[in-house]
Amino acid sequence: MPKNKWTYDAIHKSALQHEHKNDWLKAEPRAYHAAHRRNIILEVTAHMSNPSRVWTISKCQAEASKYWTTKEWKDCHKPSYRAAKRYRWITVCKPFLKSNREKLSREMCLEIAKVYVSEREFRQHHLEVYEYAVENGIYPECRALITGEPVSQTKVAKPQSPDKKIQSFNEHLQQFALRSVNARI
Question: Where are the domains of the chain?
Answer without folding.
Answer: 8-44
